[in-house]
Specification:
Elements: H1 3-19, H2 27-50, H3 62-84, H4 90-116
Length: 117
């Protein structure tokens, strides 16, 4: 497996571990989650450029780009919104947020398969 895929998987596992601490979620953890989305987005962009997909993945596989890269911005916006609302809406938004996080995981796994081939 390439070091690139390993780094993305490791960063994503950190994102998941923070998300799994949701009962303890506070401003500090929200900031960490938001920071992880920025780090993962930068990793995706580096992969895109390195593999000729363009800076935002416009020349790459649309499904992988949308699932892995596009969802990060949705996750970030949702976390920022919940933080501004003092996490009052968390329970009503939790399932959708969790679904988006797992879609990013699926995209990283797809990318990992393509790198290993």
């Amino acid at each position: 497996m390439s070091a690139e895929a390993e780094k993305m998987i490791a960063k994503f596992k950190l994102l998941q571990s923070f998300y799994n601490c949701v009962p303890l979620l506070n401003d500090y953890l929200c900031e960490d989650l938001i920071g992880f989305t920025f780090s993962l987005a930068n990793m995706w962009r580096a992969y895109f450029v390195k593999n000729g997909w363009g800076e935002n993945g416009i020349h790459g596989e649309a499904g992988v780009v949308e699932l892995g890269y596009g969802r990060l911005f949705m996750i970030r916006a949702e976390i920022e919104n919940m933080k501004q609302n003092k996490l009052q809406e968390f329970k009503s938004r939790e399932l959708e947020l969790k679904t988006w996080i797992y879609k990013v995981s699926d995209a990283i796994q797809l990318l990992k398969l393509r790198i290993n081939v």
